[in-house]
What does this fold into?
Amino acid sequence: MKWLLLAATALLSYPSIAQVTIDNFTDEVDQWVLISDDPDGQVYMLPSTISEDEAGNRLVWLKAVNAKPLKNIKTLKTLYVFDCKFKKVGVSHYIELDKNDKVIGGESMSSTDAALYTRDPDSLSYVLMQGMCK
It folds into this structure.
């Protein structure tokens, strides 16, 4: 449940937009925040990317860094889509990077076209949905 605490901390500690100024924008907003850390790797969230699409879905970029590359993928950056009304989660974009941060794959689609699924209540994406949909 360490990831639950990290995710909650990241969402709760994110500065309100009123605290962000032109002088501290990069320091306060544009940083990957660790939300999960285990022997398989780490997951980070980029709070500055939290947004809403035209359908009212909430969006945020996550980055998973594998402890050992899987199929040559060291890092996976993913744009998650949260449908708060129906409590479903999907992926709109993803970018696969190798150990040298070279793009080796990916896919992109409109967030309103992303397939959305019900998630296990014990999963990180479900916990993030709870925070994103408040």
Notes: The chain has one domain: 2-132.
